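Dissemination and training. As part of the outreach component of the grant, students in the summer workshop were shown how a complex can be specified as a set of sequence lines and then modelled as a single object. The example used during the hands-on session is reproduced here so that future cohorts can follow it. Participants entered these lines:
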Amino acid sequence: MNDETDYLAEGRQVFVEESSELLQQAEYILLKLEDEPDNDELINDLFRTIHTIKGSAGLFGFDDVVAFTHVAESVMDQLRDKEIFLNDDLMGLLLDSRDQISQLVAHALDNAEVPIGDSLRETGEELLKNLHQYLDIKTPNSSIVITAESELKVLTESEIALELTEPESEKVTNDYWHISIRFNRNVLANGMDPLSFFRYLETVGDIINMTTLTTDLPSLNDINPEESYLGFEISLASTASKEAIAEVFEFVLADCQLQILSPRSKLSDYTQLIYALPEENIAIGETLVASGALTEDELLKALEYQNVDIDKQTIVTEENITLDKITNALMDDVIIDKNIVDASNVDTALDKQKQVKEVEQQSVRVNAEKLGDLINLVGELVISSAHTELKAKQTEQAELLETVENLTRLVEEIRDATLSLRMVQIGDTFNRFKRVVRDLSKDMGKKIDLQIVGGDTELDKTVVEKISDPLMHLIRNSLDHGIEKPNIRTANGKSETATVKLEAYHDSGSIVIEITDDGAGLNPEILTAKAIENGIISANQQLTLPEIHRLIFAPGFSTAKEITNISGRGVGMDVVNKNIDALRGQISVNSELGEGTSFTIRLPLTLAIIDGFQVQVGQSSYVIPLDLVEECIALDEQQAKKGEYINLRGEVMPYIHLSEIFNDEDSLNSTLDKPGRRYNIVVVEYAGQKAGLVVDELLGEHQTVIKPLGKVFQNLKGISGATILGSGEVAMIIDVPSLIRRVV
Amino acid sequence: MSFTKREDSNQKKGICVLDASPDMTIYCAANNLAEIKGYYAEFNHFELNLSDVEEIDSSGIQLLLALKQSATKDGKQVFLNAISNPVAEVMDVLNIRSHFDWIQPE
Amino acid sequence: MAKTIMIVDDSASIRKVVRLTLESQGFDVIDAADGVEALKKLNGVKIHLLITDVNMPNMDGITLVQEAKKLPAYKFTPMMMLTTEAGDEKKMQGRAAGAKAWLVKPFQPPILLNAVSKLILP
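and obtained this result:
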C-alpha cells in the first residue's frame, strides 16, 4: 500500500505539469474553434484533452475533477457526434467549464482531502446544470453501476421465476460452486489463455477439482495448434458472488460458454447443464460425478429430469441470454447503432498518421532545474576551454593548438546545442492572450481581433516566463486605453473591429516583440499635462515627441481617466519597463494620434552565454556582445579631436571613448602620452541606431558566460554583467543599449 | 528449432527421444506441431523430455494432449520423461498429470 | 524471466503510475505516448501484454491494435484497451481489432493489477 502511495505521488508530479498543459491546450482549441466552429479535428482534440484529464485525475482519485469533467466530456462527445453544435452560449459555457476544471485540479493537487469550497462548488453546480441542458437533448446514458445492477436483477428474477415453476425440484448436496466452461476456438489466438483465468480464479476461491476435457481435441493430423479445443469442469469453494466469479472470465465472456451453478443448486440446473454441454450426456455426467459436483445418485436423478416437462432448449437459451446480459453489464454497454469505420477510412487515417509521423518530433520531459545545472556547467566548460586555448597558444606547439582548436569548436557546438534545449516557442505565451483579449473585449463592449505573427519564434524559457507578465500588462493597457469603443471608431471612420497585433521575430541576436494596435494613439497634450500634474516634468520643460511618449514609463504615471479593473491598478508601465530592463531588454513606444500605438520590446535570446567581442581599454578588458558589433574602423587623432561625431560612409555617427565612460586613467593618460596614435572604433548597432565605441585595442571574439553582477553593482551605468576570461581575469560586459541611449 | 531428436534415439531401438524447446507457447505452436508430426510419422515410441521448457501455455498443453491421444488411438506409445517447473505448474492447474504415461527418473 | 508489458497512453502521469505499479509486481515495462511511437517500439521485442488507451493523438489505440496484430511477433499478444468512452462503439471496434480485454478508466492501481493478472503472471 505504501508503495502504491509512492507511485501515485510520483505520478502526481507528472500530472501537475500535464494537466496545466492540457488545460492550456483546451483553452487554445476552444478559442480557435470560435473561428472555425466546424473544424472536426479541433473538436476531437478538445475532447481528447478533457478526456485525458479525466482519466489521469481518476487515477489519483480526484473524484471532484472526474465528476465534473465527465459531464463536460459528455457534452464534447455530443459535439463530436454532431448531436449538438457550437454556439456563443455553449462556447462560453465550455470555456467556463475549462476554468472550473482548472480550479478543481488545482484544489485536488493542493489538498484533495479537504472538500472543495462553497464558491467552487456552487460555480460547479451552476455549470453542471447548464451542461446538462445540452446533454438532455439526447437520452442520458445511465451510469455503469446502475446498468450492471439492473441487468443482474433481471438474472435473479428469472431464477426466482424458474424456482416458482418447479417447487418440487431437489437440491444437490455439494457445497461448491460448479463452473463449466468451453472456450471458443479463437481465444488462444487472441492472447487469452484459459490458464491465466484459472490462476486468477484461485484468487477468488479454492479450486477443489479441475477436470480438463479433451473430447473435442482433434488428432495430430487435424489439429490447428493455434485454436482452442479444451473444456473444463471446475468445482470451486468460494464465498464470492456469482457475478464476481463470472467477472473472472469477463474478457472471454463473449468467446466462451460459461455456466456457473451456485452451491446446492437445484438438480434440474445440473440437468440443464448436462444437456447444454456439447459432450455426451453420460460422459459429462460421469465427469461431474468424478469431480465431486454430483453423487451417482444425483446424476441418475438429474438424467431423469430430461423427461420433466421443461423445455430445456428454451431455458438454455434464456441462460445464455442472461449471460450475455452479464457480459453487457460488465462491459457497461449501451448499444448504439454505429457503423464501424470502414476499411478505406482507416487507410486514409493511416496515411495521414504516417504524414504526421514524419513531422512529429518526440520529446523528453526534463526538469528545468537539471537544464539550468547543465547550462551552468557548460558555462564553466566554456570558460575552462578558453583558458586552455590561451595556455595552448602560449606553448606555440602546433599539434596541441590544433587539438585545442578542435576542442574549442566542439565546446562551441555543445554550448549552442545546450542553449537551444531551453529555447521554446513564444506561441504558447501569445496564445494565452487570446483568451484575455476575448474576455476583456466582451467585458468592455469592444470588438477586437487579435492577430498573432511569428508564434514559432524561439527564445529562452526563462525569458519567456519573465516576459509574460509585462506583455499581459501591455495588452490590457492597449485594450483599455488604446482601443476605442465601436461607436467612436465608426464615428472616426475606422472599422468597428479593432486590430491588436502581437508579433515576434529575431533581429541581430535579439528577439523583438511588437504589440501594435490601431486604437486612439497617445495624446501628447494629455501626456504632458499629466506629467506636469504628477510632478514628473516641470511646466516649462520642452520635450520631443518620443520623449513625451516615453513619459508613460515614468514611475507614478497613470493617464486612465477612470480606474477600471483592467488596467490603472497602480502597477504602471514603469514596472513593465523595469521588468524588461531586468531581462537586459529594452522597450520603446511609437504612437500616432488617432492611428494607434506600437510597443517594441527587444530581448536578448538567452540570459546565459553570448558570443562576445573582447576589447582592451587601458589595463582592463571589456566584452561587447558580438551580435551588436557591426564593424571595426580606425580613427586617427585628427578625426578624434574634431568632436563627438564621425562621418561613416556619409552617415553621421556619434562615438564615445570607453575610457571616459569608465574613467580609465591608464587609458586616458596613454592617450595623452602618445600623440599621433590611432584609435579603434567598434561600431555597434542596436535597435537601428549606430554608435562608435572608442577602445585602445581589439582583442577578438570570445565566448562569454554572463555572470550577473552583485546587488552593489547593479546600478552601474553601461555595464550589464561580468565574465571570466580564459586567463581568469574578470571582464565587464558593455551594456550597449544604455550607452547608445547616452550618445544619441 | 523446437523439438530436437536426441542423437542416441536410434540406439534405443525405435525409440524417439525428443527434447522440447524452451518455448511451448502459441508463438511456436505451428512449428512445434510440424516437427512432432514429422517424428510421429517415423516412430512408434516416444520419450519426451520437457525439462528445458521455460514457457508453456494452453496451446502447448493441447499439443501434448493431442500427441498422447493420437498415439493411444494409433497404438503408439508416448512417455513423458522429466518436466520443468513451468510445465509441472500448468499440469497441476489443469489437473492433467494422469492423462500421460510417465517414465520414472532413473 | 520477467514478462514485459507495453503501456501506451498520451497521459504522462498515467504512463508513470502504470509503469511503477507494474514494475512493483516484477514486470518489465515499455511505454509509448501514442500509436505511432508504440509501433516504432514494437520492433520485434517480446512483449506479453499490450495495454493501450483508445483516444490518442497521431494514432489511436484501435488502429494501433489493428497494426500490431498484423505483425507476426504480436499476432498472439494479448491486448487490453483503456476505455472511458461512454458508448459501446469503441469497445466493439477494439474487440474487432483484437483487443479482447479492457479496463474502464478512470482506474486505480489495484484494479489495473487485477485486470492484468487475469491475463498474465509476472
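Chain C has one domain: 4-117. Students were then asked to discuss how this feature might be tested experimentally.
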